[in-house]
Write a structure and sequence with these properties.
2 domains; 9 strands; 332 residues; 43% helix; Spore Coat Polysaccharide Biosynthesis Protein SpsA, Chain A; globular; single chain; alpha/beta; 11 helices
Length: 332
């Protein structure tokens, strides 16, 4: 891993793969901040077959604090890990190459990274369309940290998750909505799972569970672009991998949540975990695939709370994943 550089407040890691249409807008938005001199932008071309790699090189030639790396295609997690290995800043921010940030918001991140003695910095996002216009989307609930104090008060990561769940039954888990202290990442081995879809849903909770000090910046800083050809937008193209990877993520998280010492936090997180697990099983039609046998139905039933959730969990436990998915209309 790269050594720290005291002059660099924020390392911005940008994985790049076939995004020549959007990459310039992403980088220009990062460059619109006034304090870019305190950052480094690490571009990781993950084996692009379009002009994305050339765009990376052109920006690196123009700006001394932008670094361009090229590697064989290994997926989003592998590109993020590669960028992390090259980072030297105090904090690390993983920005997707088809998204954008606001100029004022980027400066607020840099300011917080320069002065806050925190493990994690959080902020919110807007969903935008192909042309960058704000839109309402099904992702809105997971782009916002509603429920967290807006006065800059520090929280533990566990409290930050439970407060969001209490507020709107969701916790924002996208890796792009936080900056994490680099030493904290390295000391806790918090790298991304290579080849794993839904890596954010595993990485972010692991980060938050370890974090003793989290600071929330109550601003919509990030612009999350909804694309038809994105990894998430093309879920139906590889539905089995989405289903099986999500099941793996949820099974891993069960061990992390069930080990919490605080009884109330453990129950809140596990109840939300059970609801999310049941949604994923149905949404990805897991009943069609062999990985359905890995669904921990008894854990889901024990963790579920509330009459509706308990009923769904009971049906899943008693009749199995195939029947549950058929009942939810996801059998084909």
């Amino acid at each position: 891993m790269a050594n720290g550089n005291s002059d660099i407040v924020l390392s911005i890691v940008v994985p790049v793969y076939n995004v020549e249409r959007y990459l310039g807008k992403c980088l220009d938005s990062l460059l619109s901040a006034k304090r870019t001199g305190e950052t480094e932008i690490i571009l990781v071309d993950d084996g692009s077959t379009d002009g994305s790699g050339d765009i990376c090189d052109s920006y690196a030639e123009k700006y001394s604090f932008i670094k361009s790396f090229h590697k064989k295609n290994g997926g989003l997690s592998d590109a993020r890990n590669h960028g992390l290995s090259k980072a030297s800043g105090r904090f690390v921010f993983f920005c997707d190459s088809d998204d954008m940030v606001t100029a004022d918001g980027m400066d607020k991140i840099i300011e917080a990274a320069s002065k806050e003695d925190a493990d994690v910095l959080l902020w919110d996002a807007n969903a935008v369309n192909e042309n960058g216009g704000n839109i309402d989307s099904k992702f809105d609930l997971i782009l916002d940290h509603s429920g967290l104090p807006r006065d800059g008060r520090a929280l533990t990561g566990t409290d930050a998750m439970t407060l969001q769940i209490r507020d709107h039954n969701k916790a924002a888990m996208m890796a792009m909505l936080c900056a994490v202290k680099r030493e904290f990442i390295l000391d806790n081995g918090l790298v991304f799972g290579n080849g794993l879809l839904h890596e954010d849903e595993l990485w972010t909770p692991k980060v938050m569970l370890k974090a003793s000090k989290v600071i929330y910046i109550p601003e919509k800083i990030y612009c999350y672009r909804i694309r038809e050809d994105s990894i998430m937008g093309s879920a139906s193209l590889n539905q089995e991998k989405h289903a099986c990877d999500f099941i793996h993520v949820m099974n891993t998280l069960y061990g992390a949540y069930s080990g919490l010492e605080d009884d109330e936090s453990r129950k809140i997180l596990l109840a939300n975990w059970a609801d999310t697990y049941m949604w994923a099983v149905a949404n990805y039609g897991a009943g069609r695939y062999e990985c359905r046998r890995e669904v921990t139905r008894s854990h889901i039933f024990k963790a579920s709370k509330g009459a509706k959730s308990r009923l769904k969990a009971f049906i899943l436990l008693l009749f199995g994943v195939k029947f549950y998915c058929a009942l939810a209309g996801k059998s084909r």
